[in-house]
Amino acid sequence: MRKLLLSLLAVLLFSFSQAQTNIISTNPLAEQVMLGNYDPATYLASTVLNHPDTIAQGVKARMSPDSLKAYIIQLAGFHNRNTGSDTASPTIGIGAARRWVYQKFQQFSAANENRLLPSYLQFDLQICTTPQHRNIFAVLPGIDTTDKRIIIIEGHIDSRCEGLCDSLCQAQGVEDNASGTALVMELARVMSKYSYNHTIVFLVTIGEEQGLFGAAAFSDYVYQKDIPVKCVQNNDVIGGIICGQTSSAPSCPALNHIDSTAVRLFSAGSYNSFHKGYSRFVKLEYKEMQLPTASVPMNIRIMSPEDRTGRSGDHVPFRMQGYTAMRFTSANEHGDANVSSMSYNDRQHTTRDTLGVDTDNDMVIDSFFVDFNYLARNAVINANAAGMAAIGPKSPDFQLGVHDSDLVINVTQQTQYDQYRVGVRTTTNDWDSVYTMTGTLTDTIDVPPANIYFVSIASVDTNGIESIFSREYMTTPVGVQEITQAPAGFSLLQNRPNPFDEATWISVQVDQRPKHKKASIRISDLSGKLVRELPIKLEPGMNEVLYEHGYGASGAYLYSLVVDGKVAMTKQMVFAN
Question: What pTM value is reported for the model?
Answer without folding.
Answer: 0.92
